[in-house]
Amino acid sequence: MSVEVDFSADVSAFFAGLVGEALEERRLEATDATRAYVSGLLADYAKPGTFTRDALERPVTLLLAEAKESVGRERFERLRALGDGTLYVCGFFAEHLENRGVALRYVESIGAQAYDGAASMLRGNSLTREQSSVPDVFGELAAHFETFVELIESIADRLVAKRGASSNGGVVKLYERWLRTGSSDLATALGAQGLVPQRGGGGVH
Predict the structure, then answer these.
(1) Residues 137 and 200 in one domain
(2) Which of 33, 43, 47, 146 has its CA 20 to 30 A from that of 12?
(3) Which of 141, 191, 146, 193 is nearest to 166 (CA)?
(4) Same domain, yes or no, for 134 and 101?
(5) Does 52 map to a domain?
(6) Which pLDDT band holds residue 127 (cuts at 50, 70, 90)?
């Protein structure tokens, strides 16, 4: 799945709006700091060349082990990057993981561990009351990793739906994604193609 973003616009503001809308629609709570972090993560990955499918090929268990074997700032950056990468991959490319026979929940558990490790390092460095009052963004992401994956997945659905389908193959991909996520945005996009998806073996009409 590819996503096209208009880089003539303010990409950070664009994703901040999508994150805010998705949280509101799903009636989820998130601190302002974590909202900003997730929005920034999506904006960063939207830049051309930032993310490649090669990032999906290395085992996450190996990446976590390498991060834990590191020390100091390198350890923190590896843990943070692993958390970011798994959050993005699980939200945007879950079907790729499933096609490879990789359990999504397992990958999510690795991402949560990575963020928790990063959060622990920051807490360990919080020597003053002022430092300890800094928002625990990574702790929040670790504790609610699955929820944030679902949030990003809903944003991905919206972006895919906006692109619509320019071919029969595109319609099939929209339908297959709708089957997995049940997204109302995808259902609307299918409706624009004259199709009404139905669950329970009803297929499309």
Answers:
(1) no
(2) 146
(3) 193
(4) yes
(5) yes
(6) very low
Give the position of tokens 């990575």.
Answer: 114
> Cα 7 from chain centroid?
20
pLDDT at 128 over 50: no
Query: 49 with 103, same domain?
Result: yes
Structural domain span for residue 112:
11-163
DSSP 69-100: H--HHHHHHHHHHHHHHHHHHHHH-HHHHHHT
CA neighbours closer than 13 Å in the CB half-sphere of residue 164: 7
Nearest Cα to Cα of residue 161 among 181, 182, 190:
190
State the DSSP H helix or E strand holding residue 204, giving kind and residue range, or none if neither.
Answer: strand 203-204
Each residue of 46-72: pLDDT tens digit? 886 666 555 567 889 999 999 999 999
Are residue 124 and residue 181 in the same domain, yes or no? no
Residue 152 placed within a domain: yes
pTM score of the predicted model: 0.77
* Residues 99 and 172 reside in one and the same domain: no
| CB within 8 Å of 53: residues ≥ 6 apart | 96
